[in-house]
Hints:
Layout: H1 34-55, H2 58-71, H3 76-88, H4 92-105, H5 109-125, H6 129-142, H7 147-160, H8 163-176, H9 181-193, H10 197-210, H11 215-231, H12 234-262, H13 264-278, H14 283-295, H15 299-312, H16 317-329, H17 333-349
Helix pairs in contact: 1-2, 1-3, 2-3, 3-4, 3-5, 4-5, 5-6, 6-7, 7-8, 7-9, 8-9, 9-10, 9-11, 10-11, 11-12, 13-14, 14-15, 15-16, 16-17
Amino acid sequence: MKIPEQFSNLITIAGSAGTVLAVVLITAAGCVSPGMQTQSNAGAYFNRGDAEIAKGDWDGAIADCTKAIELSPDYSNAYDGRGCAKRQKGDLDGAIADFTKAIELKTDGADRAVFYNNRAVAKQDKRDLDGAIADLTKSIELQPDNAQAYKNRGFAKRLKGDLDGVIADSTKAIELQPDFPVAYQYRGFAKEAKGDLDGAIADFTKAIELKPDGADSAVFYNNRSYAKEAKGDLDGANADQVKADEVYAEAERVTAEAKRASGELDRDIANYTKAIELKPDDAIAYFNRGVAEQAIGDLDRAIADFTKAVELAPRFETAYLQRGYAKKAKGDLAGANADFAKVNEVRAGLGLNAYPFPKKASSLSK
């Protein structure tokens, strides 16, 4: 199963037969006991929910995983899948409850390690960093060769300011998975914060080599630009920012074209509009609608929705971040700088490290 970018920190479990796009409940030619048939039916609903997660249909996934649970109350993977979808909708307490139930039902094995990882991501979203680190440590104990769990724990330690812990966990993730660009990125962040600018640049460069295209690569170029600027290499910093803009613009164009062709963006906007009608104070719905509007190039509407999101949730750092990118795309560099500064103001208020934005968006070539 292809894991969407929204689940970069989550680990999903595909059905044993892969994803199934429709629920097909077929009775075999021979006799099938009622218990076996119920289990099969539950699996079919879970598989469809799994496919809906891959497509970003969170409501559909929740409905189908719930049906699977009704048919088979001990179905740990269905609780996990529903938890993943709830997290994407912003229901963090509901997600944590589902992941906890999955952990209770699965007492050992790789699946239990996955459930701990996924609960950790939801706890991190709630800023329960100690709880997240504890869950990731448990996940690693159960599955010590899981590079993703080490990377995730390193990120949680970064949020706590434990730079040595970030370096140790990122290094372990790289040992387990040498082609893991984000692990190099996280280690680069920590090295930069500790003043090891050459080490940071080397790690960001390796991340770029491993992933030279796409939105992630644009971030890596941006990170390396900041480190070069800190070293006084202004020409190198500006060159990396130009490249970051080029790579990001191309990635956005490709993604938007694919989503527009499939009608996905229009469906997303319609769904989030309906969610806002039902719950007008839902900051996450405004944010998600803004992301879809930004993807189709409707920057004014996107900025308006991001603005509404931060009005409803003044510490919604990602909404400030996306609004900054939208303003930058419109050429409002002063507004972009102000939003990027606000991101780090919010993070400072939460006791979190600053993001390494370039000093001024105006230094970027348009």
